[in-house]
């Protein structure tokens, strides 16, 4: 019987919930922090000792010197971007070599995967997904087609395998008439990145993690993106290409379901979405602009404006069900400090029909709201639950009632100290 547990920390809406900040608060409790899905499409912003870092592929536990950080088999990794990210941390004085382990089974994002990402998006015309352009979709497609290259491949006969796959991609691009690209410089950096990656421990991370669990060590599985961007359960086809939900922890790290302990579901006091796709709570008015401005809702990876709206209880209830969320974490509560009223979407409506269950296709559904009084007070100075303004306490109690799940951590500002644990 394994003594240790894998707790999951998952974005449960459209990503960008602020996982970076909480992982850092959580890290002291765990021996290992592991990423199980996604790749450099993620951008976890962490402010550490006054310096801002945006982590894409590297787990957020990297700032604590005694933790092992794992990039699991369910991830995809771009050697050039990984190198840039890792070198920035090394320059800032963090020692990575012994503490950052990469799964040999994680798939490699080639420069031509990124070209394919752009080519496929261009071919989609007005139905573009609005991807991050990092080659995520083409790399996961290749994995499913059983033609991809994995991290372990860089250890032997790599040049030949690479040339073969690149030639295949070039042929697809010629067939798509997408030939106006030049990856010479990108490819040079990518190959340098491959050489750099060889200096890291490239291991069978599933064996490492399971051995650690047997020894009673605890693991934090750090999610990327969010449930509504999951390839199976999100707003398909406007989703990412991996399983971002709790099931993805098992496949993306090689751990059994009975190793999962707590499932922390992280969401914001309002909703955002980057990229295309249905978003019933989207606000096109000045309230949406105000949320974006106060919440600094601009993409960490792409710099794009995030679409903003009120909290969506239909999506949250669905995500809690799919992931088995045991505790909720609400971020950015302070962004709503100045709003006289706060709304929450309790159902969707289309053609006179209402639903509280997530529909097959969320396109064309309108949000039905309930309205609550705003707290109109500064939450950022609050240090304990006893200081909550009454209207805020009521908002939290309302959400807990509707979601039938406790909110155990509340964030009231960007600083680590502005976190209330209940
Ligand atoms: P891809 O993951 O680059 O293929 O993009 C697919 C969709 O997921 C697009 O709508 C992206 O904007 C969105 N997406 C991917 N990664 C993130 C993330 O980390 N945060 C928020 N949205 C993301």
Q: Mean pLDDT across all residues, rounded?
A: 95
- Beta strands, count: 19
Counting helices, strands and paired strands, the structural category is alpha/beta
How many helical elements? 11
Largest sheet: 10 strands, mixed
How much β-strand is present in the residues? 15-25%
Strands across the major sheet, in which order? Answer: 9-7-5-2-10-1-11-14-18-19
Assembly state: single chain
How much is the radius of gyration in Å?
A: 21 Å
How far is it from the N-terminal to the C-terminal residue, by CA?
Answer: 31 Å
Low-confidence stretches: none
Question: SSE order in H/E notation?
Answer: EHEEEEEHEEHHHHEHEHEEHEHEEEEHEE
Mass-distribution shape = globular
